[in-house]
Structure formats: C-alpha cells, structure tokens
Specification:
Blueprint lengths: L1 E5 L4 H11 L12 H12 L4 E8 L2 E13 L2 E11 L8 H16 L3 E4 L6 H8 L21
Parallel strand pairs: 4-5
Antiparallel strand pairs: 1-2, 2-3, 3-4
Protein name: GNAT family N-acetyltransferase
Pfam families: Acetyltransf_1
GO molecular function: acyltransferase activity, transferring groups other than amino-acyl groups
Length: about 150
C-alpha cells in the first residue's frame, strides 16, 4: 500500500470512504447530501494549511487522514481532524499502516508531532494508543454551546 497526499481531485474517493466509514456506530453520520459533503470537504482540504494523506492499494483509497498544519513557534504540528478506514478493510492492519506512514512522513517533513482528538469511550481510543499516541498532560478539549440550555 502506498501513501499519497490527497487533494481536491480526490473528492469522490474521499466521499466514498467517509460516507461508509462513519455511517455505522458509534458515529452514525448521515452524509446523504453531496452538497453538504462538498462544503465540509472544502473546509478541511481547501485551505493553504490543509493536509490530507491517503493509503492506496492500486487505484483504491483504503484509509485516509484529513487535517491541517499548525505552525507554532517551535515547529509544525499535523492536526488530524478525521481518520478512517474503509469498512471492508478494517481489522486488517490498514489503519495502523496509515498511521505508521503518517509518522514517517511527518518526521521526514520535520514536523514536531501529529495530534488528534478522540473520545476516551470510542473504540478508536485504544487503537490510537496501540499505535503510539498518548494523552497530552494538561490539555483538555472544551466547547462553548451556541444554543441556550433548556430548563
């Protein structure tokens, strides 16, 4: 399997993988609208600092990581926003292979680290730990809701 940077030309392949990978539990995402996906796609891969990496087997996209580069005072960080493996390829080492190749790519490019957010209760949490990710001490993901709480 070969690692390749993903770009705007790969929208159809990326849509096919994301649509199937996130349609099942625990996500149950419903990407029924190609227009909604296109807006998401441009948000995530249509920027100067966007970086998508895909694992290809022949002409087929097997797994992908979509994210962005953050330039800090002490180096560049690759922040993965979405990571997924085609459902028919899960459990066969494709995800671990992609993460291994991402790490090699990041080191070769001189990035200081690769980061991502996940839920502690999601199956992906143990997968990321198995592949070398560790929780960053003193970092917490926080959110500010836009809708008022209902009484």
């Amino acid at each position: 399997m070969v690692l390749r940077e993903l770009g705007l030309r790969d929208e159809a392949e990326i849509f096919a993988v994301i649509r199937t990978a996130f349609a099942v539990a625990p996500w149950n995402d419903d990407w029924h609208s190609a227009e909604e996906f296109h807006a998401y796609f441009l948000d995530i891969l249509g920027n100067r600092n966007s970086l998508g990496l895909g694992l290809w087997e022949g002409e087929a996209l097997v797994a992908l990581a979509l994210g962005r580069l953050k330039h800090w005072f002490d180096g560049v960080e690759y922040c993965i926003d979405d990571f997924c493996v085609r459902p028919d390829c899960q459990g066969q080492g494709a995800g671990s292979a992609l993460l291994g190749q991402i790490r090699e790519y990041a080191c070769r490019e001189g990035f200081k680290q690769v980061s991502l957010f996940t839920n502690r209760t999601a199956p992906a949490y143990a997968f990321y730990q198995k592949n070398g990710f560790a929780e960053v001490e003193n970092r917490v993901c926080m959110a500010l809701p836009c809708a008022p709480e209902r009484a």
